[in-house]
Amino acid sequence: MSKTKKFNISYLTALLPAVLAVIYIALLAATSNIDYTPGGFHFIVPLGQQDVSDFSLVTLLIIAATFFVWGYAGYFSARRRAPLLPVLLVAHAIPIISVILFAVFSALGMPDTAALFTVGFGTFLLFGNMVYQLVALNYVEVFVNIIAMAGTFIVGYSIGVAKGKKK
Question: What is the pTM (predicted TM-score) of this model?
Fold first, then answer.
């Protein structure tokens, strides 16, 4: 009698970056016609436009929700007993490919094309933009995004493992 392995549903977290990318693109389209005057703290600002450097309440809420959802993905994976490294790599497949393509096209001197590949981070781009507003270092925000994503996933995974051992 052969023992077959069952598919672990936690590997479907690889689809989450694609969902976050679709949400990000929808937010870009939805906020493109917002009248914006620089200065101050706004309820909402246009996303993805040049020279929009003010914080907004909606952006902060989206960033908080993104971190919560991504942490929950790690928690969900731990509760389904998926091994950390494989599920971490699978869940971050789209962002890892985005970083690689961003680096390649940046090195080739094609910054506009490289910027298109950052959509693979989805709503984590809002966090990267916020970091860029605080410390304007070109290209660093992409690496901050991948570190923040992996760190949030690992924290969620750790919480899931800890809750599992508590029982």
Answer: 0.84
